[in-house]
Design a protein that fits this description.
With 172 residues, the chain is of the alpha/beta class. The chain has one domain (9-171): 3-Layer(aba) Sandwich (Rossmann fold). Helix content is 53%, strand content 14%. It contains eight helices and five strands. Strands 2-3-1-4-5 form a five-stranded parallel β-sheet, with helices on both faces. α6 crosses α7. The longest helix is centred in the last third of the chain and has 18 residues, at 132-149. The radius of gyration is 15 Å and the shape is globular. It binds shikimate-3-phosphate. Residues 16, 39, 50, 84-86, 123-125 line the site of shikimate-3-phosphate.
Length: 172
Amino acid sequence: QSRKLFSYNIVLIGFMGAGKSTVSEYLSAMFAMDVVEMDQEIVAREEMSIPDIFDTYGEEYFRNLETKLLIEMQERKNTIVSCGGGAALRAENVKEMKKNGRVVLLTAHPETILERVKDSEDRPLLNGNKNVEFIDNLMESRREKYEAAADIVVHTDKKDINTICEEIIQKL
Ligand code: S3P
C-alpha cells in the first residue's frame, strides 16, 4: 500500500457498469483512501432502495439528494467519491464535483456494460431495458455531459483493474 495522501477528492463518474465501484475499491486499497459510494450512502440515509426512492419520490428528488451529498463531500479530502451514473447530468452537480477535486470519467462499450449489469436488479433505468440498443442510446444521449464534466477520461474495455487504476493515477 502506498502512502500517497491526496489533498483533494477523486470523483468517479460514468455510465452504469463503467466500473466506478470496482475502481473505488481498488484505489482505496492502493492508497488508503476513504470511499463514499453515493448510491449506498443515499440508500442508507433514506432507508430505501434506489428503485423504491425513484418509485416513491421520483428521479428529481433522488438527484437533489445527490447534489446535497456532493456539497457535503467537499469537507473531506483523500476520499474517492463514487457517483451514481446519472449524477454528472446536472450542471449543478458538476459544479459541486469540481469543488471536490479531480473528476474521472470511466467509459466502456455498450456490449461491455450489458455484460456487467445484466444480473443487477437495482438499476431502475435498466429494468426491462437490458439490451445493447437501449444502453447505446442512453449512453449517447449522455456522452456530451459526461465528457464536459470530466478532467480525465479512462477507457475500461478489456483492461484489468490494475491497469485501469495505474492509468488513472498517471493522468491525475
Ligand atoms: C443511475 C445510475 C445508478 C443509480 C440510479 C440512476 C443513472 O448508479 O444512481 O439507478 O441515472 O445512470 P450506478 O451508476 O452506480 O449504477
